[in-house]
Amino acid sequence: MDELIDTMNTGQLKNIIKTILIKHDLSNEHAKISTDALINAELVGAYGHGLARLKMYCDRIKKKVINPKPKIKIKKISNSISHIDADDSIGFVAADIAIKTAIKNAQKTGIGLVAVKNSGHYGLSGYYAEQAVKKKLVTMIYTNAPPAVAPHGSLKSLFGTNPICFGTPTGSKIPFILDTSISMINRGKIRVAARDNKKIPEGVALDKYGKPTTDAKKALLGVQLPIAGFRGSGLAWMVDILSGVLTGGNHSGRVKDPFDDFSGPQNIGHLFITFKTNLFVKDYNNRIKENIKRIKKLPKIKGVKEIVYPGQNKYKRLKMNSKNNIKISNSIKKDLEFLKN
What we know:
This protein is an alpha+beta fold and about 350 residues long. The protein has a single domain (about 5-185, about 225-280, about 315-340), classed as Malate/L-lactate/L-sulpholactate dehydrogenase, NADPH binding domain (Ribosomal Protein S8, Chain: A, domain 1), CATH 3.30.1370. It has helices spanning about 10-25, 30-45, 55-60, 90-110, 125-135, 185-195, 215-220, 230-245, 285-295, 310-320, 330-340; strands spanning about 5-10, 75, 80-85, 110-120, 135-145, 165-170, 175-180, 205, 225, 270-275, 325-330. Strands 2-3-4-10-5-6-7 form a seven-stranded mixed sheet, sandwiched between helices. β6 and β7 form a beta hairpin. The radius of gyration is 20 Å and the shape is globular.
């Protein structure tokens, strides 16, 4: 089992990661963008999207399937709509440009719609949603991913865990951020469990023979189960269409696994939608406050102290973890030492 053997303060760790990424030919700006996203994942407790993926990104740069010096093109379709060709950049950079473009478009016209093609894995969708919400915008974000989930009725995985993300201002300092994959468990968590020789929960995956398994390594070779049966499968399909078919990105099972498939770039597609809260009503802040307040006042089942909205627990983890050093596991420490040298 992979034990936690060390801690490191955030600033020190950021410097190490940034130095590693610059060593792998990312520009200073792109290394900073990527470092900030990776550290944020650690601070909110999304470890499967944090330092556990750093070596993978570096490996893909070495294998020339991530372009460290991309010539990213932004095609303006209208004042509201933009189409970005990320030129196989690391996903963090493509997504950072995309959400900033979507925000700018929405601030000008009321709504921003940005599609991205030729990108890669960009970490947490919620990280980008928070940027829009801070600008007092509502946002919806979609991205597809490598095959992990079988379409309903199929034994073969084809859809990714294809997260669905929604964010809105709440009139308070804690934003409403729903960022959820359509699978019962995040694939990053299964990878971390496999690396650390830990079991995964029952009912989240099948092995390659279609039998239920709690063995993380067998799950990676098998099929992850979607939330809510055929409904989850349908949502995965929807995201595949919105972020793959619509954008010009790969779709229908063609997104390459970033850890195992170095035969070419992933060509992941993303779709970013942002819009102002006052498009239809002038008192959105009061209405969203009333919405949250009424739901929080509902009678609670035994053992529940508070009805929380999506984003509250993540905010608490971020606030708590930001005060402490980041924990470094044995395997992560080995990755950092290897990548530094």
